[in-house]
Specification:
- The complex is a heterodimer of chains A (about 260) and B (about 575).
- By secondary structure, chain A is mainly α.
- Helix content of chain A is about 40%, strand content about 0%.
- Chain A has helices at about 10-25, 25-40, 75-90, 105-110, 145-160, 170-180, 195-210, 220-225, 250-255.
- The radius of gyration of chain A is 19 Å and the shape is globular.
- Chain B starts with a strand and ends in a 16-residue tail after the last helix.
- In chain B, a hairpin with a 7-residue loop joins strand 4 and strand 5 (about 80-85).
- Chain B has one domain: FAD/NAD(P)-binding domain.
- In chain B, helix 1 (about 15-30) packs parallel to helix 13 and helix 6 packs across helix 13.
- Classes of the chains: A mainly alpha (about 260), B alpha/beta (about 575).
- Chains A and B meet through helix 6, helix 7, helix 8 and helix 9 of A and helix 2, strand 5, helix 10, helix 11 and strand 20 of B.
- Chain B: Belongs to the GMC oxidoreductase family.
- Chain B: Pfam families: GMC_oxred_C, GMC_oxred_N.
- Chain B: This is Gluconate 2-dehydrogenase alpha chain.
Chain lengths: ~260, ~575
């Protein structure tokens, strides 16, 4: 992973992969399109050799073995999701964006576990998601279903209004479509106005900043930008310090020691 | 058919500070005690190595799974209530130690005024000062009577602090010294001092030294790791029932703690007017059991204490139309009118805000209780103004955005990265009053997984909540300006209660008092008319004081434990003579 050179800008990658996904099927390309979206290192964000996100979990071509979809079955849905996360948390001079940080795969996995499946929510009826704007989650559908419904609506609108998949559109057009979802101008089946976007936004930010064990915040890229060092035994010796302490991030894997 | 188990002296429902304290005290006194915890067994090692913001702060790992049981909520008595479905908006502590494991540790006593709020308000300002829609009540106990129980709880819990310059002089000093002072706390204290206020270091349930409590339990000095509130401590360094009272109770063979024991009913003999035990489901097997007991102690969360009485047909349900009945009356809590204040964004200072502890903070009492003249103010009571340094991980810190900043996209990213650790918030922990129109009862539509009705909350702000909230925002803004923030943003008071139950400070419904016409339990938390049933916890608060509720719940639990022993060993029947005041009906 670390020795792969960046050859395109993030947006080029998105465009390229989108075109490729529409045009080529099978073989290395089939695996390579989305894979390559996530494998390129930003010039300023090079993974340190020996960090735990590579090595044991990387395949022979350097791609992380867990970079695969387990919820979003249709490639086009996932590419749309990925492009949207990048608009929410874009690559910039500060560092990597949502895609390079692994946020789309984070979201895909979250969809397939208790959060996405609403396993800890009260899901007994009657349901009426239109009954109140102040009672929090009232949808009959799960979070995962809401994301899927929303992503499908994004694709539908992109094709209707712009004659192309969302992930092929330029940044400004993508932003304007997302704004329509944010404001609630666009209906998403089963979701109250704005709820799909809010969910997409919060899960993208969580994918950027949650511990890397969940599949996002790859190589601590999110933590480096925000200068959060991750879990430690304690800060007794630093807590009174007048100066801000810039400390190299370490995650749960380091904290727990791994070794199983 | 439920299997009937062997009779015990006392069955305790819940294992938080309320149930934990009662269990420990009764076990120490040699009683046969069974404690029933709805959640899973948690031990210290469950919290070692799992410092994980997403899991505990965003996925609510140690909050109740709402799948089979939540609360419905509405503002008006003629509305249809909706269930609160997600732990994002309904957080109830569960598992061994209950909410007392994820608490932050902020420790205050309520003020003498707060325990006698009705009579002292009348004495100082006249009866007209109390709005007609407000059910303002005395607690049936005074601060002087509460003092020894506070002290008992504080020494058991190893609280570290310093004397609040405005509070009554303590009988004994805090058992431990205060926490360390950080640059952000110093900034707050200096600004408050400049304004003529009286800041001091917040008293903390985070240990400031290694400590052995009076029960012989060992606690360790806190290391300011920041994984504290909403987390369990990995180090016995935040006082909780696992490290203290549950451990103490477990040292006694006459104590047994059963987990995944979901109590569905208090068994009640109407002819004798006595509780005879409880019915519970073993959530591992689905089998039902009857646990007979001489004394039944409900010490669960306020919601569950209310609901179990209602489901069991014990007590008289409050009806807002007739204003009769006491059970479910005076439901209150620190909802979204409290904890507003001001946020400051600093261009030139960057603080180590990822370090911290649940109760690391600075506070002041100048605007608490009746410490300031209310003659010309349009509300009663007050609260603390606090600056806390909980320790903030990345997801939380990424939300520090000056007003007008987009919440996503290029500008969002750039701005959030800049201000993540340059943002300080101070807030007012405003008290919460009770009104005739706020109460809890059983929902007519939504049920739990067994088909039992959910508890329904009917709650809206009174004028006191709106006005005290605005007052707090103004005072906090003055302090934040003095702190020198480059951007000072006053908080915004919401229009109405928003059905968000995330702060944990929900209280009342089984309130204490000296008059059975306006209270359900006496000052020992013994139910009026059901002598062997004690209801312990925040459910007893007639209104919510202007501080975090936990220490008062702990102190009341010691009071209740004393009462239970008196009832069992000395004088059967009611421990307190009722003082009926028909003019308050």
């Amino acid at each position: 992973m670390a020795d792969q050179e960046k050859k395109f800008s993030r947006r080029d990658f998105l465009k390229t992969s989108g075109v490729a996904a529409g045009g080529i099927v099978g073989g290395a390309m089939f695996g390579g399109v989305v894979g390559s979206l996530y494998s390129s290192q930003d010039d300023t964000q090079t993974a340190e050799p020996g960090t735990e996100t590579e090595g044991e979990t990387a395949s022979s071509d350097g791609e992380p073995l867990d970079d695969a979809r387990t919820y979003f079955s249709r490639r086009e849905d996932f590419e749309t999701l990925a492009a949207a996360t990048e608009r929410i948390y874009p690559e910039d001079d500060n560092g990597p964006g949502a895609i390079e940080l692994g946020a789309p795969y984070f979201i895909d996995r979250q969809c397939n576990e208790f959060w996405g499946r609403n396993a800890r929510e009260y899901m007994m009826g009657p349901f009426d998601y239109t009954a109140s704007a102040t009672h929090g989650y009232q949808a009959k559908i799960t979070r995962a279903e809401m994301l899927l419904n929303g992503v499908r609506r994004m694709r539908e609108l992109s094709l209707e209004d712009h004659d192309d998949e969302f992930y092929n559109l330029d940044e400004d057009t993508q932003i304007s479509i997302l704004e329509d979802f944010e404001s609630g101008d666009v209906d998403v089946p089963g979701a109250a106005p704005g709820d799909f976007f809010n969910l997409l936004r919060s899960m993208t930010i969580q994918g950027v900043y949650a511990d890397p064990v969940y599949g996002g915040n790859r190589d601590y890229g999110g933590w480096r930008m925000i200068q959060f060092p991750g879990p430690r035994m304690g800060w007794t010796n630093e807590i009174e310090s007048e100066e801000f302490q810039e400390i190299e991030p370490e995650g749960l894997r380091t904290y727990q020691g791994g070794g199983m | 058919m439920a299997e009937e188990l062997d009779r015990v002296d006392v069955v305790v429902v819940g294992t938080g500070w309320a149930g934990g304290v009662v269990s420990a005290e009764l076990a120490k006194a040699g009683k046969n005690v069974v404690a029933l915890e709805k959640g899973e067994e948690k031990v210290r090692s469950d919290y070692i190595g799992v410092k994980d913001e997403l899991r505990f702060d965003n996925r609510y790992d140690i909050m109740q799974n709402l799948k089979g049981d939540t609360v419905t909520s509405r503002n008006e008595i003629d509305e249809t209530a909706l269930p609160i479905r997600s732990p994002q908006t309904m957080q109830i502590g569960i598992d061994t130690g209950g909410a007392s494991v994820h608490w932050a540790g902020a420790t205050y006593r309520y003020w003498p005024y707060e325990f006698e709020m009705r009579s002292q308000t009348i004495e100082r300002y006249g009866e007209d000062k109390i709005p007609e829609d407000m059910n303002l009540q005395d607690w049936g106990i005074t601060y002087e009577e509460m003092e020894p129980y506070y002290e008992q709880w504080e020494y058991m819990a190893g609280i570290g602090g310093e004397q609040d310059p405005l509070a009554p002089e303590r009988n004994r000093p805090w058992p431990n010294p205060p926490m360390k002072e950080t640059p952000s706390l110093r900034l707050f204290k200096d600004a408050a001092t400049n304004l003529g206020l009286h800041p001091y270091q917040l008293a903390a349930g985070n240990m400031t030294e290694n400590y052995e409590n009076p029960d012989g339990e060992q606690l360790n000095a806190c290391m300011y790791c920041s994984y504290c509130t909403r987390h369990g401590c990995d180090f016995d360094a935040k006082s909780d029932p696992i490290a203290t009272v549950i451990k103490t109770a477990n040292r006694h063979d006459n104590f047994e703690l059963r987990h995944k024991a979901n109590v569905r009913r208090v068994l009640y003999d109407e002819d004798e007017n006595m509780a005879t035990g409880v019915l519970y489901v073993d959530e591992n097997t689905g089998l039902e059991y009857e646990q007979p007991a001489d004394v039944v102690v409900l010490a669960a969360f306020a919601f569950a204490n209310n609901r179990l009485l209602m489901l069991s047909g014990i007590g008289e349900q409050y009806d807002p139309e007739t204003r009769e009945g006491t059970l479910g009356r005076n439901f209150n809590g620190q909802y979204n009118h409290a904890f507003h204040g001001a946020t400051g964004y600093f261009e030139n200072e960057k603080f180590n805000l990822y370090m911290g502890a649940g109760a690391l903070g600075a506070t002041l009492s100048d605007y608490a209780a009746d410490n300031f003249d209310h003659t010309d103010l349009d509300f009663l009571g007050g609260g603390a103004i606090e600056l806390r340094q909980y320790g903030y991980a990345a997801i939380t810190s990424s939300g520090n955005l000056p007003e007008g900043t987009p919440s996503w996209g290029r500008e969002y990213k750039d701005t959030s990265l800049k201000y993540a650790y340059r943002t300080l918030t101070i807030w007012y922990t405003a008290n919460a009053m009770s009104y005739w129109h706020n109460y809890v009862d059983l929902d007519p539509t939504y049920t739990d997984e067994y088909g039992d009705p959910l508890l329904r909350v009917t709650y809206k702000f009174g004028d006191n909540e709106r006005n005290i909230g605005e007052f707090g925002i103004e005072r906090c803004t003055e302090i934040m300006e003095e702190m020198g923030a480059d951007i000072v943003e006053p908080g915004t008071m919401p229009e109405e209660f928003n059905h968000v139950y995330t702060g944990g400070h929900y209280t009342g419904g089984v309130v204490m008092g000296d008059d059975p016409e306006t209270s359900v339990v006496n000052s020992y938390l013994q139910m009026w008319d059901v002598d062997n049933l004690f209801v312990v916890g925040g459910s007893a608060f007639p209104q919510h004081g202007g501080h975090h509720p936990t220490p008062t719940i702990g102190a009341l639990a010691y009071r209740a434990a004393e009462g239970i022993l008196m009832y069992m060993d000395e004088e059967e029947g009611q421990l307190v003579q009722a003082n009926r005041k028909s003019n308050l009906i």
